[in-house]
Amino acid sequence: MTKTYRTLFWLFTICSILLNIGPCAYYVIAALVGSTLVTEKVTLCMTVLVVLILSIIGWINKTTMRSRIWIILLGIYFCLDNFLVPLLLLGITQVLDEWIVAPLAASYKTKLTINKELDKRGV
After folding, report:
1. What is the count of structural domains for the chain?
2. For the segment 44-101, what is each residue's pLDDT rounded down to a tens digit?
3. Distance (Å, rounded) from C-alpha 104 to C-alpha 115?
4. What's the pTM?
5. With contact defined as beta carbons under 8 Å apart, do 108 and 12 qualify?
6. CB pairs under 8 A, 24+ apart, for 72-75?
7. What is the domain range of residue 25?
8. How far apart are CA 12 and CA 57, in angstroms?
9. Using CA atoms in the order 33, 35, 38, 44, what is the torsion angle rounded to 10 degrees?
């Protein structure tokens, strides 16, 4: 059971990361490639830099800042002509992650920890 829980924990953790980072990365790259003005590219690069700095600060302080996604969305908004699709896709993936995938990853992490302790006792 420990191997099953470990596999499921890592599967849902990777899915959670992909649901959060995947659409953002795709649309940031699409916006960089699709934008024709240098000011649009600089704006997007600066918003990505600000988000990276906020992510590092949050990682050091061990806090989760949900405002990072909105900063990325503002940068994408300035570069893309059709903004509704990225907004909907990012919203849907965030909801799926927060309601389904992240709770499952947390549940399997707890079960993995419990089974590791049982394995130590020889049960």
Report:
1. 1
2. 888 888 888 888 888 888 777 777 777 877 877 877 777 788 888 888 888 898 899 9
3. 16
4. 0.71
5. yes
6. 72/24, 72/28, 72/47, 72/48, 74/47, 75/28, 75/31, 75/43, 75/44, 75/46, 75/47, 75/48
7. 2-121
8. 25
9. -80
